[in-house]
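USER:
I wish I could look at a protein chain and see how it folds. I am handing you a single protein, as its sequence and its fold in token form. As I understand it, each token names a local backbone shape. I hope you can help me see how the letters and the tokens relate. The protein I mean follows directly.
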Amino acid sequence: MKSGLTTYICKITNIKINTGGIKMIDKAHQKTTDKQKAYWRKNVATIRNLLIIWVLVSHIAAILLAKPLSNIDFFGLNLAFWFAQQGSIVIFVGLIFYYAWRMDRLDKKYDVQEIRLTSNKKSNKGASV
């Protein structure tokens, strides 16, 4: 049996007490919306596609196609060596920048972008740091 104080605390904090234990009830975040599902679906699809590109460049171009690509010169090196040593790294860094750019656009589209909390330099003119 719950006391009056326990009942009052449960009402103001959205806690449900039963014989199984204590459970928090958060009605505001209980249900995933269609907008959130679409956002994560696009996020996961972007990650999947970028990983496929990375695997194709780093493994297939550098390892499996090494013999056919070794006959092609690229910046004075054979293309298979270039993909194995520098190309996969350059592509990987490019994919990182693309992902950051793409996610910024996706965040703005679904209104989940990060905000910057900066102070105005003019208002802090006399403040010491």
